[in-house]
## 1
Amino acid sequence: MAPAVSNRNTPTPKELSKQVLETTKALCVNDIENNTIFQPNIALQTPALQALNRIKNMATYEQLFENNRKWIAAMQAKDVDFFEKLARDQQPDYLYIGCSDSRVPANEIMGLEPGDVFVHRNVANLVNNTDLNVMSVINYAVKHLDVKHVIVCGHYNCGGVKAAMMPKDMGILNPWLRTIRDVYRHYEQELNEIKDEKARYDRLVELNVIEQAVNVIKTANVQKGYLKKGYPIVHGWVFDLHTGVLKDLNINFVEQLRNIQKIYDLTGMVSEHNEDGE
Ligand code: CO
């Protein structure tokens, strides 16, 4: 005899979705414990896990559009002309160069709204001089958007920095991570004196930020912009995932610029600039 199913006991699609998510989560925790969560061969996953993962992936994907509708309503509730203003133009005062890490959302950690900050993110917040992507971002932000501040923001527990500390072949990531290894080589003595591995890792995160900020200062756009307008000022920050705190590394921009221009001057006006009292 089939059990009677009352309407009250029939889960709604939302409840079902929640149940699926919770079951999947439990299975995933189990897989994490058994170290099989990263099983690359889907055929080796259990059919139940495959099915649950598919449902979960679609449920979370569809949720994005639901979130979008809610976000539109919330923005319009605050300001009925919000999107009209947003579409008009952008005049951000800040360029933020940060890590791609999903736990470090640029606008949110600074309490800034859409339109307030121009953002570039990549693995381990690197500023490579041959990276057309970051160089184009700096050019556009400094020359055309006229930003007042350029911020390089790293974060503790950075996977990119951690990977660069491991004696391992990372394939395509090797040339990218080499920049961080170069930072390590530059500060080898200081870093090797730190016996605690976690403390050394944290310090490398900070030193990487400082060196990437220096790389920003090496660009012609920043040097010429500062000579002409007195900005942008380049800053180095580190975000702490455990506390949410943004730590300013207090880079002395003018001093760094002066040091950099001994070799990397791209303005052709450093001596004249110095005579002006700089
Ligand atoms: Co990172």
## 2
Amino acid sequence: MLDVALTLNRRPVRLRARSDQRLLDVLRDDLRLTGAKEGCGKGECGACTVLVNGQAVDSCLMMAYQADGTSIETIEGLLDEGRMHPLQEAFIDKGGVQCGICIPGMVLAAKALLDRDPSAGVEAIRHGLAGNLCRCTGYTKIFAAVVQAATSPRQRRAQAPAPSGSTPRSFRPRTLDEAIEMLAQRPDEIRPLAGGTDVLVQAKDGTVGRGILFDVTGVLELHGIEERGDDLWIGAATTHTEMMASAAVAQFAPALPAACAVVGGPQIRNRGTLGGNLANASPAADTVPTLYAADAVVELVSVSSRRDVPITEFFLGPRRSVLARDELIVGVRIPRRPGVRGAFLRLGQRQAQAISKVSVAVGIAFRDGRPEWVRVALGSVAPTVVRAPRAEQILLAGGADALRQAREIVKEEIAPIDDLRSTREYRRQMAGVLLERAVRKATEA
Ligand code: FES
Ligand code: FES
């Protein structure tokens, strides 16, 4: 059992959790805080949403020991001296309370949004609730309730400070040396865990045991976004939310924020990390084409080696990469190219919470009004993300017909398949369409 110290609904709490218990399990089963529900158990519905340090998080995708040292709010904590929170009152007023499964998570996701942006408009509310599903389709009343609460004059309560953590370092190493030493000792038995948005879904499916995971999000050397020499460095434990908020990422990897913005809902973006996305090695990962389109290099380290791998050589196939069992992804370096432009577009089954059928990222730099560097990368159209060098050459050469030619040639540079999400032919056609739109978007920006 592991000691976990946290602030829960503004009270200090110490508890003991098994190494394979999720936060959701401890909240519901041990603490009897049953407002958080288990719907999908895979980060797709938001019914288990809680606030961790003020951010909406799916508690089904977080281990209990990862809550050590954090401040957590559940729906039970919203009552203030017997009064409901304005959001709860607004949900009742507007008829937004339709079932007990989805609404607690909806209210908490809305609270995270309004605490951050008290005057959020309808569009921001839609995005803020994109990680929460309502199967009875009562969204109109739910949005109306959040709009009403957004205009409520009541003040936000101060966050209680998070306590210092007490989980043993064997589950939460604090330094890179500790983490790689642990991997070196048991490379075939343990696996790093960051946001958990992929690996805990695999655990739910039974392909990974939760007991073998150890949390690397406490390792300081894996955090940060920094300009280092000629490069922009992004730490492996940087979340999608952090990348979206970074001016440096927008400047030097201009397609990356748009890719981060379509990864899951806010709960997933608040937890999912760049390093986790790479380690998972999905050909449909949305951030990866943008890294191809930025000439990124992946930094890997183990006890015995340190190596840099160009992103184009990192992946070997679906779920396979050159990452060895004793290696950790430390971060990604992206050359700081002055004036670089970029765009990312994708097609999914729907706008939010969908895996891409096809995605395109472009990066373009100009000199004297002419392209001097062009990258085109595509996802979900081959066993790994791929570059399209012939389309790149055509765009580099320029000319009145370049865009049309690139749109046609890119269809020959990919190898899509028929699967549950789409057909080979549709993917091929849409790759060309998306490329044209992405180039226009990047160049007209
Ligand atoms: Fe559906 Fe956690 S139970 S996101
Ligand atoms: Fe639960 Fe709509 S509020 S299904």
